[in-house]
Amino acid sequence: MWPYPRIVAHRGGGTLAPENTVAGLRAGLARGFHAVEFDVMLSRDGIGMVVHDPEFGRTVAGQGSVAGTDAVDLANMDAGSWFGAEFRGERIPFYTQFIDFCKAQRIWMNVEIKPADGFEAATGAWVAKVTRDSYAAELAAGDPAGYPLLSSFSYEALAAARDTAPELPRGYLLDTIPADWQQQAQALGAIAIHTNHKHLTAGLAAQIKAAGYGLFCYTVNDPERARAILGWGVDGFCTDRIDLIGPTFA
């Protein structure tokens, strides 16, 4: 059900580095993490960029949006100064840049497809195609731990990923678990449910596991809570507190 790492660094470096940057990946590596979760959104010219917020203002200074800006301009924007002066000049990465780094360092990727409004299908299809092409050899080898898992809150984006690259595994992201979760997951061909640990119960966890799905939670930053949900049968989770919850946490 879950052939992947159990503890995953959220957006790269959690609380130790600016999110969704190469510096974040390096921070996770320094703590022993070889598993990362991050977000991919399309630029105006249809290129996948590693960034979470559709609008500028939080991690990227200024006004504007990812979907309204070309990739070359996004790649020149400072995505580190907001976090600390030592990260000034850290750029918004291309998705392909993240792939290259993660492959070189043997980092497993949970790629969250994060479409801007109106670009759900296009984003899902683009991420799936680029991921499939980049991991063709690993897919041919047939070891699921050797290639990424795609996830999304967007049903449409995940459906487009399914149609574009059905061989890539998919996790369906749900903040709360609806009554028809299994029908939706089956239609998407998802192998796992990814959900907010705050809304998960032991009973729901047992139901998901009994149905044969992997169960992954976000974003677990308290060690006691982490132990509790693992005790319910949760297969894995991402964390910001990579300083408190290491990759071998038990």
TrEMBL record:
<dbReference type="GO" id="GO:0008889">
    <property type="term" value="F:glycerophosphodiester phosphodiesterase activity"/>
</dbReference>
<keyword id="KW-0378">Hydrolase</keyword>
<dbReference type="Pfam" id="PF03009">
    <property type="entry name" value="GDPD"/>
</dbReference>
<dbReference type="InterPro" id="IPR017946">
    <property type="entry name" value="PLC-like_Pdiesterase_TIM-brl"/>
</dbReference>
<dbReference type="InterPro" id="IPR030395">
    <property type="entry name" value="GP_PDE_dom"/>
</dbReference>
<dbReference type="GO" id="GO:0006629">
    <property type="term" value="P:lipid metabolic process"/>
</dbReference>
<protein>
    <submittedName>
        <fullName>Glycerophosphodiester phosphodiesterase</fullName>
        <ecNumber>3.1.4.46</ecNumber>
    </submittedName>
</protein>
<feature type="domain" description="GP-PDE">
    <location>
        <begin position="5"/>
        <end position="249"/>
    </location>
</feature>
